[in-house]
Amino acid sequence: MDHKAVAESLTAVAVQAVEIARRHGADQAEVGVSYEEGLSVTARMGELESVERQRDRGLAVTVYRERRKGSASTTDFSAASVEDTVRKALSIGSFTTADEYAGLADAELMARNPADLDLYFPWEVGVDEATELALRSENAARGYDARIANSEGSTVSSGAGYRVYANTHGFVGAYPTSTHSTSVSVVAKDGESLERDYWYTVSRHPDDLESPESVGEEAARRAVQRLNARTLSTRRVPVIYPAEHAKGLFGHLISAVRGTAQYRRASFLLGAVGKVVMPSFVVIDEDPAIPRALASASFDAEGVATRPRRLVDDGVLQGYVLSSYSARRLGLTTTGNAGGIHNLLVKPTAGTLADLIADCDEAFVVGELLGQGVNTVTGDYSRGAAGFWVERGEIVHPVHEVTIAGNLEDLFREIQAVGSDIDTRGAVRCGAVRVDGLTLAGGG
């Protein structure tokens, strides 16, 4: 991808669409234009299984006239199509109800001279090289242990794209991104016991990916470790969430403090700013400017400049997660989170997952979470799970067919430790988390 040529082309289309919206009577307008291309190669059981090439582009227009909002989109960037898309957005807006909170984010909040956050590292990987990497990863998994009986495949993916946002404030922001990954999924078998598990690595820069062999071996280790699982009787015990699962806990926090949940009064943390929501040792920051990070951005989906901030300080919630619309509904100012959060960092308070396990006389370590039993309106939390039973600081056997039950408000306050083994693969960056006071319901 010649990103400079793509940038010029997409920027011209975005600016054109904004001008057309003005010309046709929009009070305000915003346009998002994107282009993405990529390659995905999957190998399974030692052979190339599939090759997918992706090339997508899109233009989305939102217009506001007399506080009425209309949106339309297209994949055709011709002048006639762009004009037709703007007309459709205006037509749709004419049938909607006026909303006093609708409109662009305030002009003074737009990003000025957005920083380059090193989010674009093209990887000129071809089908042959990607196939070789996928086979190396799968072969490492299949050769890890004789009990690896089958493979669901190894996939190597590489993608790059360019995004432009423009609006009638005169703001035009654009930046390229890239994302590369390797993933492996295998099945382990021992007698009648059959278990699957997976692992993956993902980054902006191909040099930051874990080696294919390490990804395959970790997938196999995880699958073998789960063999011959038992169930447990119902009990209240500490539950340890490894980093890859702990991220979901803080995702539930974000869902509860989003502006949308707050103004709809659909959150168990309603009006919680300034209140204690977690133990005093918990500190959570948002840092949108980490170079190469997967959730970094100099401006949000409305062109608002992103800024670092502290979301939870000594256990006390400091603010909500707001777009301009939800902020207006609450009488507040946007936090630059239209489109999501940008690198949520949970400060470690303890050692690694192994250290958290070693500190427990009894505990359940989460290996997999199942189902969608989380209600952020009431805080009720109920997830099917599989994992591992701990006695005297050591894992003694795998566990399956149990349910973790509790309430998120209590769960957050019963956090005992946040580990230092931080998982950076996503918008939430945290280590393993130990939570006390949860009920583990089983049939044993």
Spell out the key features of this protein:
alpha+beta; PmbA/TldD fold; 2 domains; five-stranded mixed barrel; 24% helix
Describe the structure in your own words.
The chain is an alpha+beta fold and 444 residues long. The chain has two domains: 3-225, PmbA/TldD fold; 229-444, no CATH class. It is 24% helix and 37% strand. The protein has nine helices and 17 strands. The longest helix has 21 residues, at 3-23.
Helices and strands, with pairings:
Layout: H1 3-23, E1 28-44, E2 47-65, E3 68-74, H2 79-93, H3 127-142, E4 148-167, E5 172-190, E6 193-203, H4 212-225, E7 235-241, H5 243-257, H6 259-263, E8 284-286, E9 309-313, E10 316-317, H7 324-330, E11 344-346, H8 353-358, E12 362-370, E13 380-391, E14 394-407, H9 408-413, E15 415-418, E16 428-429, E17 433-442
Parallel strand pairs: 7-12, 11-16
Antiparallel strand pairs: 1-2, 1-4, 2-3, 4-5, 5-6, 7-17, 8-9, 8-11, 9-10, 12-13, 13-14, 14-17, 15-17
Number of strands: 17
The low-confidence runs, each spanning 5 or more residues with pLDDT under 50, are none
In terms of DSSP E residues, the strand content is: 35-45%
Oligomer: single chain
CATH class of the largest domain: Alpha Beta
The CATH level-2 architecture of the largest domain is identified as 2-Layer Sandwich
Main sheet summary = 6 strands, antiparallel
Q: What's the number of domains?
A: 2
Tally of individual helices: 9
